[in-house]
Description:
The chain is an alpha+beta fold. The protein has one domain: 3-Layer(aba) Sandwich (YefM-like fold). The chain has four helices and three strands; from the N terminus they run E-H-H-E-E-H-H. It has helices at residues 6-11, 13-20, 40-43, 45-50, and strands spanning 2-5, 25-29, 32-37. A three-stranded mixed beta sheet has the order 1-2-3. The chain starts with a strand and ends in a 9-residue tail after the last helix. The model has no long low-confidence stretch (mean pLDDT 82).
Amino acid sequence: MHAVNVSTLKNKLTQALLWAQTQPVVVVNRDRPQAVLTEVNSAGHSLGAERGMVDPRRS
């Protein structure tokens, strides 16, 4: 599992998204976990459907 702080995430978003394809990435703000980035398929399609999100690759 990777962890990045908010400022690093802003500067290296592409790298964080690449990491998220293989394992969760924890976003840390002031030494506290704030969010987790994960690949869409690993989160499951039902999560996005419940929130009204659409995968543009499936449109």
